[in-house]
Amino acid sequence: MKKKINRRNAIKTGAVSCLGASLASYTTKKAIAAEDDRRFLIVVTATGGGSIIDSFLPIQESSINQPGLSTYTSQQIFKPEGSEIATVHPFSNLKIQGLEVATAANNMVTFLENNYQNTAILCHEVTSVNHEEAQKRAMNGNSANRGETILEAVARRHGNGLLIPSCNMSVNGYAQPGQYPKTPESARPLLISNPKNFAFTTHASKGVLNAPDESLLNRARKIRGSVEKRGQFWQTFQNNSRLSSYIAARNSLTSFEEANLIEKLMIVKESEGEFPLDDYGLNPSPLLEILNKSFPNLMFDAIQAQAALAYLLLKGNISSSVAIGPSFNLEIDTNNKIINPPLSFDFSHSDHRNAQNFTWHRLMGTVDSLIALLKATNYKGNPELGTLWERTLIYIATDFGRDKILQPSGGSGHHTNNASVIISPLIKGNKIYGGIDEASGLTYGFDLNKGNPTPGINGIREPHIYSLITQAMGIEFPNQINMSAVIKS
Amino acid sequence: MTTLMKIYIKVFVFSATLCFVGCSKKKKSKSDSPATIENSDGEAEATEGSSSNTPDGQTNTPNPSSSPNSNTNPNEDDLIIGKNLSWKRAAALTVDLSSALMLSPATLCNELGLYSCTQQVHITELGSYDPLQSGTFEPIQEPNKTTPISLERVILTACTNSVYHSQIIAKKLYSDIDLSKNTGSISASAFKSHFTKLYQKILLREPADDELTDLKELLKDQAGNPINNNDFAILSCFIVASHIEGLFY
Amino acid sequence: MNRSFKKLKLVILYLVSFTLSSQALALSSAPNIFCSKKPNAPDCISGASKCLACHSSVPNLNLYGQDVQSYLFKQKGYDKSKFTLYLNGAIDYLDKLDSDSDSFINTIELEKSTKPYDESSIPEIPIVRTYENEFAYKRMWIAFCGRSPTYESMKAFRNSSNQKEIIHKDLSQCLKSNFWLKEALYRLADKKIRPTKALGAEGSIVVADYKWDYRLFSYIMSEDHDARELLTADYHIEPDGSKTTRTILKEDPVNGTFPSNIIVVDVGQPLPHQYRAGMLTTQWFLTSNTMFTKIPRVTAAQAYRAYLGLDIAKGDGLFSVEEELIDYDKKGITAPSCAVCHKTLDRITYPFIPYEGIFGGSVSGTYKPSREFSELEGSGYILGTPTTGLKDWAQKAANSDEFKIMLTKLFLQYAIDQKITSDNEDFEELWQSIPGDGYSINKLIHRIVDTMTFGAP
Lengths: 489, 249, 457
Hints:
The complex is a heterotrimer.
Chain A: H1 7-37, E1 40-46, E2 77-78, E3 87-88, E4 95-96, E5 99-100, H2 107-115, E6 119-125, H3 131-140, H4 150-158, E7 166-168, E8 190-191, H5 214-228, H6 232-237, H7 241-251, H8 253-258, H9 261-264, H10 288-294, H11 302-315, E9 321-324, E10 331-332, E11 338-340, H12 348-375, E12 392-398, E13 401-402, E14 414-415, E15 417-423, E16 431-433, E17 435-437, E18 442-446, E19 453-454, H13 462-472
Parallel strand pairs in A: 1-9, 1-12, 6-16, 7-8, 7-9
Antiparallel strand pairs in A: 2-3, 4-5, 6-15, 10-11, 12-15, 13-14, 17-18, 18-19
Helix pairs in contact in A: 2-12, 3-13, 11-12
Chain B: H1 3-11, E1 35-38, E2 44-47, H2 76-79, H3 90-101, H4 105-108, E3 110-111, E4 115-116, H5 117-121, H6 131-134, H7 147-164, H8 167-173, H9 188-203, H10 209-215, H11 229-241, H12 244-247
Antiparallel strand pairs in B: 1-2, 3-4
Helix pairs in contact in B: 7-11, 9-11
Chain C: H1 2-25, H2 30-37, H3 42-45, E1 55-57, E2 60-61, H4 63-74, H5 83-94, H6 106-111, H7 133-145, H8 151-159, H9 163-174, H10 178-193, E3 205-206, H11 211-220, H12 229-232, E4 236-237, E5 243-244, E6 263-264, H13 283-290, H14 297-308, H15 336-349, E7 381-382, E8 385-386, H16 390-398, H17 401-416, H18 427-432, H19 441-450, H20 452-455
Parallel strand pairs in C: 3-6
Antiparallel strand pairs in C: 1-2, 4-5, 7-8
Helix pairs in contact in C: 2-5, 4-5, 7-9, 10-11, 13-14, 14-15, 17-19
């Protein structure tokens, strides 16, 4: 009798070994090619629904405005010289539902001054006003690409050879994996719930007091591998997909350890009683000083901590796509002042204008600092390869828009009409694609051939935004919409 | 039972594992579906009812009422043995490790001595979540890329703590090893007794002889020198506690 | 060099003899002999060449043919003149072999008309797993007690002749444990309650206390309580575990006192019991979902999703109502792309309208028929059936198949720590058993641990 083996095993083994050889050479070639044209995507989520008419398409108040329409005085609106895009100053004495907020720097203004040339506003309608579903659609273009999220698509194209091709620090629908079954496991984003803790998850022994040295640990791992294959458990479950992927991840954990991510990604500073790194033989990131200058509140502001980690992931050539964004949780600073209102942008239900104004400024200030760092950093430290920023696209994703006409209480509900903000040297910036009907507060779209506005018509939906981003990142997929009008040739 | 079926059953033996076959698309009831286990000659032999070869030589009795009647034709994938495996997530891992290593959950593992490994720092990687802190309402479905690292880190810390945290605990847990000696030989009987204790506490069974043979490698380092007893205690705990059989079920 | 040359010569000789003997096997009578013995063989019924039963292309042998050859060469006194004589024996002998190593022996393949020489050609015969008591026992402990059994209890289990009884006896204990009642059930409720710390009783702007929701959920899902009360209960569970139908206001001692820097919008369960519909009308559910909206679509959509498993955003549970869709609150819902969902969504929403979310200066989460559009309360629908109000809506929902399916999916997926597929072998039987078990979740769980889905590795 021939050797009895599981049919699937046989097929798998054969297939994998054949594929292994060809894949090895394919991925090597691909990796070399990708090295030259690697691009990076950062998704920044305006969790809860960031309203475009309260950020980058403000409507100047006039006598014809509808009562309740969210408008701004000419003094409140700012437009840098040469910019086609405007924004809103922070409100003075800003409070959210009467609660004290942390000092709101003039972040949107600074952001726009620094970045208007690379910023595009894409007016659109979305197709869901359910937070979770709308968030998912913002990430997967309403299943434009067989359900693969934008993070996954970029990781698949640009993440070859990287330790963690994609990371996701956002929440809820933004953090959901895509539905495309052929997305490789390696391109599935790693969820990071707390960027300050993440470094600890990248090394099994460094910083563990009294642990045996690494060579002994590696020896123990090897022995464990032999022992595991002895028992009945292995015989029963060796082909289990959950176990197989766990073991595959375990087999590659030394690459995390060898890369010393536990220190490279350690964004907390030595502090007795809070982060006694030294006592545990650990060091913070060598770039911590730079990070603290750019993100001075990163110890208590989650978005700043996320942005700091995102920068390190890109700079270290560890990830190709990263998502960051506020959660729905209230965050307060050391003076008990609000940093993130409860429900983030969705606090607009209670206090639309203050919540929008404060949260947009907070978010865009962090984005501005992040871009400044990317502009100052050469890809792989090599000036000949250009800066990281030259390879990066930032997508401000939002659940949906808000009601244009505010409730008497000052609150707003969810609305499908809105716009997305894209910032990148890869696109034709300093432009509003589409426009706004100042009487209704509703945005209208643009024609896809030349990017000219189409007043009264807004045919731009989630798949257009998804297609635009993928196209700018050099990714093709079936039924991709040609967005060349927005992309630099 | 037909001869055809008997032959068919014989062919479908997965090496040391149990494998059960039916002859028709409609699922057979237990009594129609005898199990087979391989004897030492590699030949399959039929046994009565559901059976599993447990490490201590016990044989499970058949389950008289476990077969649901269903006329559906499930996917073949659903019928392949070994498909059904759960992941022991943060909460159960914490309780099991604490209990096995005689440490309270609070002292099991804390990053920098301050932050709970299983409830805070590694909670996502260990397959759990805190709805109030993270704003998420479900855990990750599958272990992710850093799950093995987090698991090893938590287990290594816990094992290290079990050796160094309290002499009373260490003496009880590692009674077969003289932790006061830097290096020293461990007798064959102490070695077996030590691993038997760990296996029983963590894997709920005794170690098999071939497993013990493999584990003997732990007595020395790469260069063949004996390792010190504390390292041996920690790493023996680490090997058993991070064994896949203790992390999945 | 000499040895290598000799080896090469041997190889050449072997190849020559192999080819010759292969040709010898290709006797014209062979296919007929084979097909008379194996009429269902694919190469006998396909109409293509019967030679393919043993040859990949004459004279080359396929895997089955190689086994025939191997058998023949082992027979004492065999030569090609005896081929026909020995072929029958070869075919019989090969019956129990698995020539292509696809785990299906040749006789099965030839019976079922698949190719015994091609591993990708296999019969459609399912491999039936079996229920393993020890596997189920450990799994039950971890899932429902939150920890593994001890070595001692596992040993006793292995030695027992009543393993099934032990599983159920221990399960009954687990279902009374703190782990199950205060941890596991709480986590199972998270997606339904969706707590936001900042707005709860431990937050900085208190709009309601979701701990009431967790206690109610855990109570109804435990012991043998009727699970339908998730949608129909007119009571709450006090912090001490007792049941009450009283209204609980902000000032009630049970709510405690809050520091002065905390804004307390409201906290308690102020809704009179006659208007309560279990988890759908807790103060947290109403305030966190309805908030300030007049037509609380988010509330209804969450109720539909959390308690009937139907997500309108995904196109689940859409039904057609003849009546015209009216855009009462001017949200643009009659646009064709919106109306697809809103024809259902608005109708399931109307019964929620008189239930207040947050209203400045007033009590949150109570019944207020003066709310705008409250006249629509009786125009609602659930699952295509008209309803007279929220209590009727909830009653019909609680008795629906969708509710039973939601419960079964929730607990089965939890038990096995995996998503189940729609064709799961046990699923239908499980959810259909719920009414007969008096909607007891404990009984459902006892059934779950008996299934192959739970107990077969």
